[in-house]
Design goal:
binds NADPH dihydro-nicotinamide-adenine-dinucleotide phosphate, TIM Barrel, two-stranded antiparallel sheet
């Protein structure tokens, strides 16, 4: 059921993760990210997606403290960066992130990219953090099916989430089907294709038809497909508008129209060709 901003997906370990959250990549540490989270929480968001790479975990932690909500009402995700991968180094990176976030526990910790030769050791560290109760759920990001299969051949705990680039121009149909069959929740990064969706004529037509904006059409398409989504903005009105998607429903035909926009176009890197050496 898609009723409101605080609806959740139940991960395979029973933890509830909000279907909608705020992304904070490129939101500046300090005032900018603090304000963005403040606007989001006021609008009803309960999930924040950061990463050590975003260099704003301190601001995210500050915003969490300032927002006045009980900790357990928020769902906080961060990620281990490529250069920190490996068993001991991941455990150290986690402590560093937790210090910056100033949290007692994390909701979701992700491997940011599948660094070859390292992600299995990194995963063992995530499993330890999970078993020790430091984090409520663990997952991966930018994993293709072959990375997941390789990881799961040795994993004791199956990833709960795979966060990947996903938008109408890169709809990831096969990966979504595979993850669904494995009980791994799919989360869309760059759900607005970093703004590229705004130029699409088909999406503009649908926006006019439903009297909604293009971002609202695209984010609603995510939710109707069961995809967790985390649009980023630092502007209050956009943060409010992006979440105003619970008063309409895209028809089956219009969902298919958006599905047909797929052209396997990435705004970011293909995980198979990512340069991990930084
Ligand atoms: P998005 O697809 O969310 O697009 C964000 C861009 O769109 C920003 O420039 C924002 O500008 C603009 N925007 C947002 N809402 C509107 C609107 N209503 N109208 C017009 N423009 C709008 O891109 P992101 O790359 O930020 O992806 C979202 C999140 O996913 C990230 O913040 C991060 O948390 C995560 N991510 C994860 C990655 C991974 O490897 N795991 C990689 C990349 C992202 P403005 O802020 O000025 O409003």
């Amino acid at each position: 059921m898609i009723n409101n901003l605080q609806d959740t997906t139940i991960l395979h370990n029973g933890v509830k993760m909000p279907n909608f959250g705020l992304g904070v990549y490129k939101s500046q540490d300090g005032e900018e990210v603090i304000n963005a989270i403040h606007y989001a929480v006021k609008a009803g968001y309960r999930s924040i997606d950061t990463a050590s790479l975003y260099f704003n975990e301190t601001g995210v932690g500050e915003a969490i403290k300032q927002c006045g909500l009980p900790r357990e009402e928020l769902f906080i995700t961060t990620k281990v960066w490529n250069s920190d991968q490996g068993y001991e180094s991941t455990l150290a990176a986690f402590e560093e992130s937790m210090k910056k976030l100033d949290l007692e526990y994390l909701d979701l910790y992700l491997i940011h990219w599948p660094v070859k030769e390292k992600y299995k050791d990194t995963w063992r560290a995530l499993e330890k953090l999970y078993k020790d109760g430091r984090v409520r759920a663990i997952g991966v990001s930018n994993f293709h099916q072959h990375h997941l299969e390789d990881l799961m051949s040795v994993a004791q705990v199956k990833p709960m989430v795979n966060q990947v680039e996903l938008h109408p121009f890169l709809s990831q149909v096969e990966l979504r089907a595979y993850c669904q069959s494995e009980g791994i929740a799919i989360e869309a990064w760059s759900p607005l294709a970093r703004g590229r969706v705004l130029q699409d004529p088909t999406l503009a037509e649908l926006a006019a038809k439903y009297n909604k904006s293009i971002p609202q059409i695209v984010l609603r398409w995510d939710l109707q497909h069961g995809i967790i989504t985390i649009p980023k903005s630092v502007h209050e009105q956009r943060i409010i508008d992006n979440a105003d998607i619970f008063d309409f429903e895209l028809s089956v035909e219009d969902m298919k129209k958006i599905d047909s926009l797929n052209r396997n176009e990435r705004t970011g890197q293909n995980p198979d060709y990512f340069h991990f050496d930084f």
